[in-house]
Amino acid sequence: MSQMNRRRALQLLAALGTTGLTAACATDGDEGPAAPTGKPVKIGLIAPQTGGFKAIGDEIVNGFQLYLTLNGQQLGGHPVTVVTADEGETAKTGQAAVDSLLKQGVLALTGVVNSAVMVGIRDTVEKARVPLIGSNASPKSLQSVVYIWRTSYVLDEPGRAIGPYMAQRLPAGSRVAIVAPDNLGSRDVIQGLQAQFSTAGSSDPRIADPVIWTDATSTPGGTAYTADIRTALARQPDAIFCHFAGPAAVQFIKQLYREGWTGPVYAPGFLTEGTVLDEVQEVEARNIVTSLNYSADLNNTANRTFASAYRKTHGASPTTYAMASYDAAQVLDKAIRLAGGDPTPQQVNLALGKIGQIDSPRGAWQFNQPRTPQQKWYLRKVQRDGQVLSNVLINELATLG
Fold first, then answer.
1. Fewer Cβ atoms within 10 A, N terminus or C terminus of the chain?
2. Mean pLDDT of 280-307
3. Distance CA 114, CA 58 (A)
4. Beta bridge pairs of residue 393
């Protein structure tokens, strides 16, 4: 089936309404979710509710809640109360959110957008012995953990996935200018790119120029990146590689085009996820190619159910942030069911290692030994789909994890 036909099929599914949605979610004939059999449980959800990462936080909340909506507001046969705490934008505000949720006796934690927050709360989560299923931030340095699992990715993987593709596309003698905010996530992404760009690794002359580090603010102004972009363009590159998300991505794309760049832009898919494409023009984004572990037009049963339900509920296509949070709920559903009628955090954590393969909207995946997904990565290109700009699936890149 062509990509256009796939997207049309998803749009038609979204238009079926409540009857079609209920049928898609029934587990056996006309049966919906089974009645709860266990005692109520409480899940703590950590997500930014203010600041530049709020849009990503909203997606994480939406994805988790969608799974609950489709499954009778229960996990593993237990009625669920979700308590949300504001992650903010710093390790300090993230720590306060975790402390608040632990005091309320949550069975498990989920969410977390910012890599600095994930690193900052590591020891608290491990000491509390309460499982955290992270649905976004996953720095490479987060290793040797027992109670922290992630349904997203490790942050060097977007660069590792797209590196070989770029190496094939860019001829010998070409140059890539790398521009990114000076933070932990960007360093992981770029390290992954350098390691997998070619067999020569970071010594490959095409990516040998020093990285141009920008300010790491999540809410930049209309000229925040102008000087850095001019530095990049002065190198006369054949391509740009960058790593931005949310409002920072919008400003970088606009300012890059305003400075005269019309060549190829390669990036992790965060550059064009969420509301970013709603805020840029086609002429500004038409040469952007990204790597990500999810595309809303993937043609599998789990994604047809998820994407159509998400569009019906929120009037927009789902993102990797929403998908990973949806999967975090699915993972907890399986683990809590295995843990039995009166689960403890420690029993749930033990059960997480036994759940096996996940039938996900991204395609089937499973946890590896470091408690991160072994999963496929996809190549996407920004193209017009009807009246809107979309991240259109081109092909598979690699299986990583």
1. N
2. 96
3. 14
4. 380
Burial of 342 (0-12, 13-18, 19+ CB in 10 A): exposed
Reduced to 3 states (helix: H, G, I; strand: E, B; else coil), residue 81 is: strand
Which CATH entry fits the domain spanning 41-153+298-367: 1.10.490.10, 3.40.50.2300, 1.10.287.1080, 3.30.1960.10? 3.40.50.2300
- Total count of residues recorded for the chain: 401
CA distance 247 to 268: 15
Q: Check pLDDT > 50 for residue 27.
A: no
User: Mean pLDDT, the chain, as a whole number?
Assistant: 90
pLDDT, position 208: 87
- The answer on pLDDT for 218 being more than 70 is yes
Residue 43 has pLDDT above 90, yes or no: yes
Cα–Cα distance for residue pair 392/384, rounded to 1 Å: 9
Which pLDDT does position 31 carry in this prediction? 55
The pLDDT assigned to 237 comes to 97
Q: What CA–CA distance (Å, rounded) separates 33 from 71? A: 5
Which is the CATH superfamily of the domain at 156-292+380-400? Response regulator (3.40.50.2300)
Examine the pLDDT at 30 and tell me if it is beyond 70.
Answer: no
Quick one: pLDDT at residue 156? 96
Quote the Cα angle for 191-193-197, to 5°: 130
Q: Which of 135, 151, 154, 142 has its CA nearest to residue 57? A: 135
Same fold, 41-153+298-367 and 156-292+380-400: yes
